[in-house]
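Notebook, student rotation project (T.W.).
Task set for the rotation: take a protein with a known small-molecule partner, predict the structure of the complex, and write up what can be learned from the model alone. Partner molecule chosen: S-adenosylmethionine. Sequence and SMILES entered below by T.W., checked by me.
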Amino acid sequence: MSADWKATFTATFGAPASAVSARIWAEVYGDEYPAELDTYSFVTRTDLHRVAAEARLAPGGRLADIGCGRGGPGLWVAARTYATLTGVDIAETALASARRRAEAMDVEATEFRIGSFTDTELDDAAFEAVMSVDALLFAPDKPRACAEFARILVPGGRLLVTTWDFDGQPPNRPPQVDDHRPLLEAAGFDVLSYEVTPGWRERQQRTMELSLERVEELAAESGEDPSKLRASLEQVLRNQELMTRRVLMIASRR
Ligand SMILES: C[S@@+](CC[C@H](N)C(=O)[O-])C[C@H]1O[C@@H](n2cnc3c(N)ncnc32)[C@H](O)[C@@H]1O
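Predicted structure of the complex:
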């Protein structure tokens, strides 16, 4: 049976951001951790700078962030490029948090709305750039998600996605792929760059090891059962072994 990701992420983002996890990310990622953005991903400052530069947005350009979570990465890129931002996620709790963040960051032209990778409910050719950070692995149908990216972009528009290639199928996860480039090309993109993000495996491994070491503290913070939390962290570690690379894909809509 496949997991109910909407329920899982709605619960995750309904709780306050974990201070224990934030300390672990800061310890592992150092200056690369964008602490002020309350990210729920392995995104680094280097990734964010690459996305902002490669989005090629003019001031007032239209940016969408799919699987936006609490909104931090998209808001950072929008603020840096003077773009308008539409964030899409399946979890209303994440969107509520993103709206508060937009106000706090004083980024005005933003909208955060419910939608999914396969059905964003956004208009055709409505964006000059679409980004997505560490979320595409949850899309149940990746070819359809790529077609949806193409549909909402203008011709020549840019796609910027961080995600993982796998050499096996992790249990209880949507189907994964070993290379996203054929999917992007079939959906109408030219792949401009397919970059492996520096140090990804060591950092993710260390993050999960520290999380396991501090499982009691994490469980006390969230109110979860420590043994269940330990089991799910161990599963994430096993899933990580099936990842062959974390990539930043940069593509242009034909
Ligand atoms: C690991 S989090 C990353 C969140 C955010 N991009 C960040 O960097 O903080 C994955 C996100 O994908 C969202 N998500 C999961 N399945 C989705 C789907 N089918 N369509 C859209 N978003 C989805 C989750 O709700 C969650 O916000």
